[in-house]
Amino acid sequence: CSLGPLSTEEQAAAVQELARTRSYVDRSRVGIWGWSGGGSHTLNAMFRKPEVYQVGIAVAAKPQPWLYNAWFQEIYMETRETNPEGYQQSAPIHFAEGLQGDLLIVHGTGELNTHVQIIEGLVDRLIELGKRFDYMSYPNRRHGIREGAGTTVHLRMHMIRYWLDHLPAGPLEK
What we know:
alpha/beta; 42% helix; globular
């Protein structure tokens, strides 16, 4: 059992089918975003399916699931010792070389759930690979990234600006 690969394949197939059957879907302008498990899914999508997704925003993701809050991970995947292949296949960090599009990674440094070293390992890997990406950390914010005056609005505005800068509106390419 592995969290990640199947949902990544299925969602990419759905995007491709929509583009095939709906003329208004522009395959050259597809973005994906998620928070927590959805952030991990975003990383998997951007790394494993770069031909499908051009822009992604991953908030509070867990690219190294063996470092994640164990009780939650183990409900679905058992332990790393009993399911090493599952953990290997679910870990976005192992597929980071696939990144081609624009990626914004957002994380709170006060995370109690997905500790900051989980994301910093991925940041180090992307640097090692020479990949271009954007990273925003929110000091002393936890998993919901809402502590502190103005944090929620700042985060949402940052995300909106990222979409506008990296996936601007435009006509379909023919």
